[in-house]
Amino acid sequence: MQTSRLNKTTIWGRLPAFLFCAAVLLSTTPRVFAQDDPAVTRRTAAELLDRIHQAAQQQNYEGAFVYQRGNFVQTSRIAHYSTRTDGEFELLESLDGKPRKMLRHNDDMYTFVPERHLVVVEKRQNKDSFPALLAVSGEQVLSVYEPKMLGDDRVAGVDSLVMELDPKDAYRFAYKLWADKKTGLLLRAQTLDSSGQVLEQLSFSQVSIGVPVDKAGIVNGIRNLAGWTVVRPPVEPVDMAAQGWQITPSVQGFHMIRQLRRPMASREAGQPPIPVDQAVFSDGLAAISVFVEPVENNSRKEGTGDSGATHVLVKRQGNFWITLLGEVPQTTLQQFASAIEYKAPK
């Protein structure tokens, strides 16, 4: 099997589910408190996870955050507003490298690519982009992670609570989370390997929470698309079992959360797009995507790769390429791959 390294892509080129993972070594360490009764710790951790999820959707905040993976650093600006009448409005803008900007109203996303004068309009599929977590209850997360409450710290000038979530098996990484004491907003998230080393990090460098709603710029940007080439990629739900695929991983805690079909441009000129099916599994923190596409040519190779916390596994199964991608150890992807079976539908 050929081993390769994933290309270092910017935060804009990665799947949304990857915006949650993060990595940087800290110059300060939070004060560690003695552990409470395990039942109290578990209840406190579950409540904090629920608050983190709710705060990302319900709070009004503006700021800048930094994504770090090894020597790679990407800074982005974010503004999020929640209204009773019109729902959520969000701006996410890259401050490094090529300009990129995303505007969102509820689940309608508009991604602007200035150098191509292109705007991609699509429905939001992933709701775990920093500072959000995946949309499951704290109790579900704690079925496969052991919580530790590590006391108080400060991030971007905001007093925070620190929590570590250690995996109960070897099939996932550990996480350390910093959340605003008052609102629960996630301020920093680290992904840790089995030795406690930081693989990836996302962290606010500046943040203002509870700001007045200022959605005018987002609304105007969405409405004024004159002069832009607007592309609406077709994405539709798919029943992969009906297509003949059975994916029954034995890794505890991972549940399928969605199945989608996206067309991919053929390498052969004049040929129709290739359908690519995607099944996404999550344990509440980590996500794994399984992509299935027909074999178009034989130039592609099987292999593995990694970048920070993200690993990839590519294998051929009959007339299909199977690609597994997720912020989990390589052994987890191998477990998933071994559980994939295909039986042509009649």
UniProtKB/TrEMBL annotation:
Keywords: Periplasm, Signal. Pfam families: MucB_RseB, MucB_RseB_C. It is found in: Periplasm. Residues 45-216 form the MucB/RseB N-terminal domain. GO terms for biological process: regulation of polysaccharide biosynthetic process. GO terms for molecular function: antisigma factor binding. InterPro entries: MucB/RseB_C, MucB/RseB_C_sf, MucB/RseB_N, MucB_RseB. This is Sigma E regulatory protein, MucB/RseB. The lineage of its organism: Bacteria, Pseudomonadati, Pseudomonadota, Betaproteobacteria, Burkholderiales.
